[in-house]
Design brief:
Helix content is 53%, strand content 5%. The chain has 396 residues and is mainly alpha-helical. The chain has a two-stranded antiparallel sheet. It has a two-stranded antiparallel sheet with strand order 3-4.
């Protein structure tokens, strides 16, 4: 008897489910838990409004909760598909109307009457109305059929929905483009935020700089960067081509003695402007695309760095590298030092420097001989002139 009085019946321990009215086990949820609150809209449509202390069970079993969740997902899927089908219907209808050649006119026209309509026979109003039932007699009533309508679930505001049930298809599309061809129309809904900002800037008439910034910040940034690098490589390839003479390819003694950085930069500005822009933007921290004046003190730095890079691409463009090698040799650099600078791409090899020194020595010798010969010729001319003058004076 003691065991019977201390045991608690399952119904009194956990209660019943609000939906199926079955006795609950340990697996249940209260109607006000976070899990159930997310499905409150669907649950209200099933059992009606509920509140604390309404005299009904305040719990729900997991089996019913899973079915309520499934019902909510089905309703969301129906709403999504309905919206998608509605867009497709509008697009197809518009395409068919344009293909047909008709113009959709939604204006309501009121028929115009020309003059007043004449009545052949005018009805005469009756003086009295005949009653169907005498006074004191209740008319027979037909029993009406009462239909209980279930409340239709109203969609919650987007801010109150659970983040777990939201997907990318539920986003509000902000940009939709329409392209008209000769016989059909194509529409496209833009979902990417970067492309949306780009199209908005174009539609709002923004400046080219603003449109370019939006394009570079969109998903096309990597494509723009790849195209820029391809153009830069193509310009450098054309600069190294032997079809057009280049100042860096000519390494005669006269070119070495008359090395001019401005001539090199002028050639790059014409044939490889992207290379020059990149080098200028790296060496100058005040570089802007609108107004930029390249400082003359940076000319040697930019020309030397660009020539070093081009020498790695084509070792025939070696004017600056020969000049650096001659400076190193004149300053007393060892063969090991010149070899290291050659590997770094700043100088030519020691053997090339030796050959170029022989050419410079020969050129210098020729210049000295020419200068000495000019001086001898000038002295001879002076003596001959004086002798001629004396002869003329003696004759007179």
């Amino acid at each position: 008897m003691a065991a019977a009085t201390n045991s608690v019946a399952p119904e009194t321990k956990y209660g019943k489910c609000r939906v199926c009215h079955n006795i609950l086990s340990s697996n249940y949820r209260t109607l006000y838990s976070n899990t159930v609150e997310q499905q409150k809209q669907v649950l209200t449509a099933v059992i009606g409004p509920y509140s604390r202390g309404d005299g009904h069970p305040q719990k729900i079993c997991l089996h019913c909760l899973n079915r309520v969740r499934r019902l909510g997902k089905i309703q969301d899927t129906i709403a999504k598909n309905f919206q998608t089908l509605r867009h497709d219907e509008e697009d197809l209808f518009l395409q068919l109307r344009i293909a047909h050649g008709g113009v959709l006119n939604t204006e309501k026209k009121t028929p115009v009457r020309h003059g007043k309509r004449k009545f052949a026979f005018t009805p005469t109003p009756k003086k009295g109305v005949k009653k169907l039932f005498k006074s004191g007699v209740t008319p027979p009533t037909t029993p009406r059929r009462i239909t209980v309508k279930q409340p239709v679930p109203v969609p919650e505001p987007r801010s109150q929905r659970s983040t777990a049930t939201q997907t990318t298809s539920e986003k509000d599309f902000q940009v939709k483009i329409l392209v008209k061809y000769d016989k059909f129309v194509k529409t496209k809904i833009i979902e990417d935020e970067g492309v949306q900002n780009l199209l908005k800037a174009i539609c709002n008439g923004r400046s080219d700089g603003t449109i370019g910034n939006h394009m570079y910040k969109s998903k096309y940034r990597e494509i723009i960067r790849r195209n820029f690098l391809n153009d830069l490589s193509l310009q450098c390839e054309q600069l190294c081509s032997t079809k057009v003479p280049s100042h860096l390819r000519s390494t005669t003694p006269d070119d070495l003695l008359g090395l001019n950085w401005d001539v090199i930069l002028s050639e790059w500005e014409t044939r490889a402007p992207l290379l020059l822009d990149v080098l200028q933007s790296v060496t100058a921290n005040d570089y802007t695309h609108k107004d930029y004046t390249f400082r003359p003190e940076n000319h040697p730095v930019v020309a030397f760095s660009g020539a070093t890079l081009l020498f790695q691409r084509n070792n025939n463009l070696s004017l600056v590298n020969y000049a650096v090698g001659m400076v190193l040799d004149h300053g007393g650099a060892t063969d090991e030092t010149i070899s290291i600078m050659n590997k770094l791409g700043c100088s030519v090899s020691k053997s090339s420097i030796y050959k170029k020194k022989k050419e410079l020595t020969k050129k210098h010798t020729e210049m000295k001989e020419d200068m000495f010969q000019k001086q001898v010729t000038q002295v001879q001319n002076v003596f001959l002139k004086k002798a001629y003058i004396q002869i003329v004076l003696q004759r007179n």
